[in-house]
Each structure stands twice: as structure tokens, then as C-alpha cells.
């Protein structure tokens, strides 16, 4: 998956924000669309890491005492 | 020494134990120091002068009556404005939580108070710990520079003599960054070593708490009081707590010190690199063995950090962002909103990459005992500086500069200590970082103490 495939348009941001009950002004929508796209470009670097069956590093410990 | 506020914790406690200094005298000196310089620095959000003096008087009575509790008794303490402090506002340095007055203490505040420490005030944080700048606060070494963050208030307060210990929290370097930029010691213990109960979260699986102090012994004394299991913090583990002061004089003969051949010195300021390599040479001169290592998976560190931190913080702030979003600063609000858009599968991918990072770093540590690096690649940036010019050309964002060398210890959960190792030509502190094995804070403190004893860099107060 490449960064270009994960570009958030202002229209997409608006639609998803409505789904999340997140109220955004038009100015914030434009800014957020750019920042989300930049963040996905950063995070997509992890897509090249071969993970196989590696489990997530969660911290939950089920001990009661 | 001309004023009591100039004393380190251990020096002050020795004087108190010997009844050469009273807790009231020490508190009066610290409060006078705050009154004299904090209008220029802005380290404190709240100063609890009245209750601090009352508590100091009680401590004095207890000690006079033979009830000395130990080396923390009567010592002035600054708590980052993320820690619950009963009856004293805890606002995360944010208008969003204005007027939030907890009824109970955080676990750390309770432990330190039980040991006799006295709250002198709440120190400023970058809003909700979400940044490395701490915009409310200036660096006491050079007021036109930032103190770092997010525990910038604690770093500035300790460096300027406004408290003897400042507690911080560290999700991507927020104890070690201000320690490096303000010239203090900063100890981020192992993930799960100290309870975060009653501390506002930034990212549950990356958050750590720890002290900023004048010197290594002081950090060891505080660490001994806050370490341990707490059922209320599911990250804490039942693992024996050693006496962190016990081995401080044991030296570093034979200690294998990893020297990174990649990433950690990339794009470092030349003065910073020289100071950190000189520190390594100092340890080598004391009998340590320097071992070249190539830290693995460094290219994934920041993406992994953001992939975990952003959705976890967005979850923590989910309700507040909807109810009081307009009260956040624009910078933090934007970050939280971006966090809302991170897919669950991206978050889990970051957690899976974190597993590989942990495994690969464990393998690296089979050949070394500690890893020595710069804490931050250069000295404190200017206030309002958004990018840093790289020595070889190009630039990087100040946020990236501050976080990128600290993030590995948050992702791996490994303990890490920041120590001052020099002063730049611009008059700003330079810091080194030592990382160690899980729950082996003692080795970091031992190496730090050996370095401190061999140089003049640790324990300096800012010349303000």
C-alpha cells in the first residue's frame, strides 16, 4: 500500500468526521486532509516490514493478584 | 554554596538529617528563588507556598522529635501538571481541564509524600504532554530558547534551583528531552517499573513516569520511592525493587558500552557529537569497554511511535475533543484529530512492528550492557523555531529533532537516563543518553554516577 493510495480529500475527511461525530470547520477540514495524508505517508513506511505471524505488543496482563 | 536552594537533594537531606538545615529554611529558600526568577522562566503553573511552608514546619517538628523518615523528608518537590495532587489543581496545562482539582493523590505523589517530600508546586507541561516545546516556559540557561518538553516546567525548575526534584512523564522522550536541554539528570525507568495511577495519559502503552534531578544519586533516591507494583496500573509488574543507591560507587570496569554506528549520531550537531563521544572516552578511561553496534529497525521508530501514540491519545481525548474541542491549542487539537483517522489495522500493525523492534533490540543487548547516544542531536532550539538546519545541509522539523533519539526507549520500554555532558559554544547544555536492559536501572545509575564523579558537567545550576 502506498501513500498515494491513502490520500484523504477534504470531502472524505468531512464524511468520516460526520461518521465520528467530529465537528470540523471548513478551514480545519482542509488542514486535516493534508495532515492525515502526511501521517499516512509516515505510517506506510511500516508496510514494508515483513510481519508474518508476529503478534502485537500489547501490555494487558490478566493476573488478578 | 551560598543559598539552600543550590543544594542537591542528597546534600540537603544530609544537612537536614544532621540538623544543620531545617526543612523550613530550605523551603523558604526555594520559594524565594521561585519569586526571584520564575516570572522570567514560567516553570510553575501553580505554586503551593502556603501549604508547602506548613508542611515544612510539620517536617521540622517530626525530625526534631526523632521522626526522620529518610533522605526525602522535607525536600521540595515539583510535580508536572499531569499528576493528581489532592486539593491542588491538575490541569494538564490546558484550558480543557481548567479548574480540575483532584481529591486524591496520584500513586507517585502519595509515595513521595509518604517519604516526606513536600509539594512546592505544579510544573508546566506542553498541553497534555503532547509536544517537546512547552510553550509556556523558557530555558533558564538562555531565555530565548525552549526548555524542551513535555516536562519542560520540571526541567526548567530543577535547573534554576526552584525545586530539588521535578517529576516528569515520558512517552517519546518527555523526561529526557528537557533534562538534556536544561542540563539536569532525567531518568525514564523501564515500562511498568513505576505506577502511573493518577497521571493523565498521553499513550497508555508508551507512557512512563520518572524524576528530573540535579544529579544521579538524587535520581536513585527518588526512583527507590516510586518503583513497584500497583494493581491500579495494569502495566506495572511484580519485580523486586533494589536499593538503587547501593551500587553507585561500584564503577564501570568491564561494562560493555554500545556505541551506535548508525542513526543516533546522524545529523548530530558537531559539538553534541564531540561531547557525547568524549563522555564515552571518559567511561572507557574508567574501565568500560566500548563496543560498536548497529541499532536495528531505526527506520521504523518514528512511524511506529506515531502509529501507537496517535490513536491511543485520540481515544483518551475522544469525549473531551467533542465537548470542549475549541479549548485545545490548535497544535494539539490537530494532532488529536489526525489520531481519530488512524485505522485500527494501522494501529495493530504498529504494535506488531513494536514486537519486532523489541526482539531485535534484545538481540543487540546480548553484546552490550548499555547503549550510549546523544539524548537530542543538538542544543535547545530557539522559541518559535520550527525547523533545524542540519550540519550537512537540509533541515528537519524541531519536533522530529527532539523525539527521534528518545523514541526507541519508549517503544522498547527499556530504561534510559539522560545526563549533562557539556555546554555548547552558545551557552546551552548538551546531554547524553544511556539505555539499559529491562528493569536494570541500577546499571544506568552506576554508569551515570561514575561519569558524574569524573567530570564537572553534572549538577550545574543555570546561571540566571
Describe this structure in words.
- The complex is a heterodimer of chains A (65) and B (464).
- By secondary structure, chain A is an all-alpha fold.
- Chain A has helices at residues 10-19, 26-43.
- The model of chain A has no long low-confidence stretch (mean pLDDT 84).
- With 464 residues, chain B is an alpha/beta fold.
- Helices cover 38% and strands 15% of the residues of chain B.
- Chain B has 15 helices and 13 strands.
- Chain B has helices spanning 9-17, 23-41, 49-64, 107-114, 152-159, 176-182, 216-226, 270-285, 301-316, 318-324, 330-340, 344-364, 398-403, 407-412, 441-454, and strands at residues 44-47, 76-80, 118-123, 165-170, 185-188, 208-213, 256-260, 289-293, 370-374, 387-389, 395-397, 416-423, 429-436.
- In chain B, helix 7 packs antiparallel against helix 15 and helix 9 (301-316) packs across helix 10 (318-324).
- The longest helix of chain B is centred in the C-terminal third of the chain and has 21 residues, at 344-364.
- The chains are: A mainly alpha (65), B alpha/beta (464).
- Chains A and B meet through helix 1 and helix 2 of A and helix 9, helix 11 and helix 12 of B.
Overall number of strands of chain B: 13
How many helical elements of chain B? 15
Number of helices of chain A: 2
Main sheet record of chain A? none
Q: First CA to last CA of chain B: what distance?
A: 15 Å
Q: Structural class of the secondary elements of chain A? A: mainly alpha
In round numbers, the mean pLDDT of chain A is 84
The coarse silhouette of chain B is globular
The percent range for helix content of chain B is: 25-40%
Q: How much strand of chain B?
A: 5-15%
Biggest protein-protein contact in the assembly: A-B, 32 and 36 residues
Poorly predicted tracts of residues of chain A? none
Shape of chain A from CA axes? Answer: elongated
Oligomer: heterodimer
- Encode the helix/strand succession of chain B as letters: HHEHEHEHEHEEHEHEHHHHEEEHHEEH
Please give the largest β-sheet of chain B.
Answer: 11 strands, mixed
What does the average pLDDT of chain B come to? 97
